[in-house]
Write a structure and sequence with these properties.
Strand content: 25-35%
CATH superfamily: Dihydrofolate Reductase, subunit A
Helix content: 10-25%
Strand order of the largest sheet: 4-3-2-5-1-6-8-7
Number of domains: 1
Number of strands: 10
CATH architecture: 3-Layer(aba) Sandwich
CATH class: Alpha Beta
Order of helices and strands: EHEHHEEHEHEEEEE
Radius of gyration: 18 Å
């Protein structure tokens, strides 16, 4: 589906291990989930390149759509960063933030609105607003729902060179099968692969043949 260039695109940015885990990437204490003690796995790979790429990713943000846990983690830190030259803090503190929650009723972080109705219609309405990007960061459960509703326009997946073997993954059983086109890739000096994909619809499937090479069928 063609995107109206005058309205916002919905982009998802998330940090993943090679085996797809996105849980507690920067928090050594984990997220409170019983049995998960591997939090903070991205920290050894943080470098100047990572900081630069993260910052670049915020330049086109005109609004944010966040799950409750991710929102609360951000709320605990970013309002305290008042450096006008910090693009991440400036965007997060001064652009609209929409938090998807059934439990949170109010918040003291400026420019925040709570989304607790039908997710599909609410997000479609947000995407019709003028602007560049409506950005989702982390927010695993929200990201899964948005994927299954076909609402994400671009997936920016940061793949870290580590395998955990347990933890919550971005895509679980039941995720809507989707084919993607790679539109951009870059790598940090620490070996983190930053890959950007756009969804291309239902995958096609084929059969490899020793005689004929790979044949693709629809």
């Amino acid at each position: 589906m063609a995107h109206d260039e005058l309205t916002m695109r919905l982009t998802l940015t998330t940090f993943l291990t090679i085996d797809g885990v996105m849980q507690s990437s920067a928090e050594p204490t984990g997220d409170g989930t019983r049995g998960f003690d591997l939090g903070g796995w991205l920290v050894p790979f943080a470098d100047i390149d990572m900081g630069r790429y993260v910052t670049e990713g915020f330049y086109e943000a005109d609004a944010f759509l966040l799950g409750r846990k991710t929102y609360e983690i951000m709320h605990s830190h970013w309002p305290n960063v008042t450096d006008a030259n910090d693009i991440v803090a400036t965007k997060l503190n001064h652009r609209p933030k929409y938090v998807v929650t059934k439990t949170l009723r109010s918040t003291s972080w400026a420019h925040t609105q709570i989304v607790d109705g039908d997710l599909k219609s609410a997000v479609e309405a947000l995407k019709r607003q003028p602007g560049l990007e409506l950005q989702v960061h982390g927010s695993r459960q929200l990201a899964r729902s948005l994927h299954n509703l076909g609402l994400i326009d671009e997936y920016r997946l940061w793949i870290f060179p580590v395998v955990l073997g347990k933890g919550h993954r971005l895509f679980d059983d039941g995720a809507i099968p989707t084919a993607f086109q790679l539109i951009d890739t870059k790598t940090t000096s620490a070996g983190v692969s930053v890959q950007s994909f756009v969804p291309m619809g239902v995958p096609t499937y084929g059969e490899a043949s020793a005689e004929n090479g790979v044949e693709t069928v629809t």
